[in-house]
Amino acid sequence: AQRVTQPEKLLSVFKGAPVELKCNYSYSGSPELFWYVQYSRQRLQLLLRHISRESIKGFTADLNKGETSFHLKKPFAQEEDSAMYYCALSQGGTALIFGKGTTLSVSS
Amino acid sequence: EPEVTQTPSHQVTQMGQEVILRCVPISNHLYFYWYRQILGQKVEFLVSFYNNEISEKSEIFDDQFSVERPDGSNFTLKIRSTKLEDSAMYFCASSKWGGANYGYTFGSGTRLTVV
Predict the structure, then answer these.
(1) Which of A7, A60, A86, B105 is the most exposed place for a label (fewest CB within 10 A)?
(2) Is B46 exposed, middle or buried (0-12, 13-18, 19+ CB in 10 A)?
């Protein structure tokens, strides 16, 4: 069955430290992978998608098919990055399969 | 920036009652979705809707659930006879084009509490 695993419930870092939010998936086909973010009291919003190979707010994520991973990285965390981050997978249709989410807490 | 609007923000209902959750998608979007998140668990896909038809649904979306676009602006999720396990945050989303790759715009959610 298709599954998205985010092994860390909470990740706490200091401002300026590197951040890596882990995401692993299981899917036999060609996955489409995404990171969604939910800031405090705000809506769930798309952060980035793997096909765009973009960097948004300093975050990047590379799809590693060999390791079935799509980890989210940022070299220098900022306090405003504190939020809940969800990794999600699409099988090409309209449904997204979400991971449980990781809370990122950045303190000064 | 255009938003997806959901009402009410919190609804309490008695077990066995029917409940309707309302959403106003972004006006030029054509694809509409419902997701839910039980407290402490994952966000789960319920259903997608396009051209007045369900285009995809999950196992969760059984006969107790239905969706409707009653007019040009609203998109509703009806739960016919609520159960305690229906208590969750329900998110509506919309997109201009179909397929998750285009990204969805989510609403802020309706917290449904079944007592």
Answers:
(1) A7
(2) buried
